[in-house]
Amino acid sequence: MKNNSLRFTITALLLTLSVSVLAQKKTEIIGKMKKARGEMVYLQHEVNKKVVTLDSCKVNFFGKYKLKTGVVLHDFYRITMDNKESILLLLKGGEKIKIKSSKDFSDKNYSIKGSKDSDLIQKYLAVKTSKGITKDSLGSYANDFVTKNAESMIIFVALGDVKDPKKAIIEAEKGIGKSYPNSIYHNSLKNAVKQLNQAKRAPQGAQIGTVAPELNMVSPDGKIITLESLRGKYVLIDFWASWCGPCRRENPTVVRLYNKYKDKGFDVYSVSLDKTKSRWVGAIKQDQLTWPSHVSDLRGWGSAATRLYGFRGIPYTVLIDKEGKIIATRLRGAALERKLESLFGK
């Protein structure tokens, strides 16, 4: 099982640390970019799937900028330029950080001083984006990275690339359990280990009237999106792939129905059986699948989802109610539209 089993998100879930203790710790970031002048840079944090800008400024004549904030949570943040390329940071509060980078942040060989965690993230991303690195060599490097830094939140940057997901998840759960035992991050990892154990059993499958098996998978931008996070809505779990012709032909119907009913409490949780990220992401963009919950473990038919839900062909859909119970399966086209009309009206 891929690390998508993890029930956490890199930037959205918040550690249960004492806000009152950290609230007075100001963080200052001083940056210098080559050949930059007049561009806007932003310090941002994502909370509950919404990006919050904590500070912003213009790059001056000399390519310098300064950002300040009272960081109250030990969490992931980003510096973005014109909302395009970005630098990922793991901030604790009270840090004074210096960053040297290229103009658009696309060069991962930027340098960071004053934040050990952020510096380690940069080093990992530099290896990940280096020329000539293979999937296997990156997977091995990612496993070693998790092993060496198991008690630090920086491991979440590497978990999406590991070669041995089971080993990495178990090590991560033990490590974060020591350093952040009362955090949502640790609880998510515990649930991931639990799901690993469940995957060894006979598949529950999609049985109408039962609670849908939990899914914890990674999105294209590295966040972990859980099925349970959509509770309170009617959700169509849509199993598909970029290479699946019938799936692609069905997508316009799903898009139309999502746009029609999204404001009435309808959502889509798309699980791709792709093996290649670029094809998966390209199909999402080409078919204009605008809902936010897109996940995959990039293992094709080897995905844990196929075992949990017990299907052998795609497209395959499961419709669940606000409590997460399965109310219908294999809905497509006109049948799906009629079902949604019965729930939300025309």
Could you explain how this protein is built, in words?
This protein has 346 residues and is of the alpha+beta class. The protein folds into two domains: 1-201, Immunoglobulin-like, CATH 2.60.40; 216-344, Glutaredoxin, CATH 3.40.30. Helices cover 32% and strands 24% of the residues. It has ten helices and 15 strands. It has a five-stranded mixed β-sheet, with helices on one face. A four-stranded mixed β-sheet has the order 4-1-7-8. A four-stranded antiparallel β-sheet has the order 3-2-5-6. Strand 2 (40-47) and strand 3 (50-58) form a beta hairpin. It is globular, with a radius of gyration of 21 Å. Mean pLDDT is 85; it is low at 1-24.
Structural class: alpha+beta
CATH architecture tag of the largest domain: Sandwich
Corresponding CATH superfamily of the largest domain = Immunoglobulins
User: From the alpha-carbon coordinates, what is the Rg to the nearest angstrom?
Assistant: 21 Å
Calculate the terminal CA-CA distance, rounded to whole Å: 40 Å
**Biggest sheet: strand arrangement:** 13-12-11-14-15
Work out the helix count.
10
Shape: globular
Q: Quote the beta fraction.
A: 15-25%
Mean pLDDT: 85
CATH level-1 class of the largest domain: Mainly Beta
Number of strands: 15
| Biggest β-sheet description | 5 strands, mixed
Percentage of residues assigned to helices: 25-40%
User: Which runs of at least 5 residues are low in confidence (pLDDT < 50)?
Assistant: 1-24
SSE string, helix = H, strand = E? HEEEEEEEEHHHHHEEEHEHEHEEH
According to CATH, the fold-level topology of the largest domain is: Immunoglobulin-like
Total number of distinct structural domains: 2
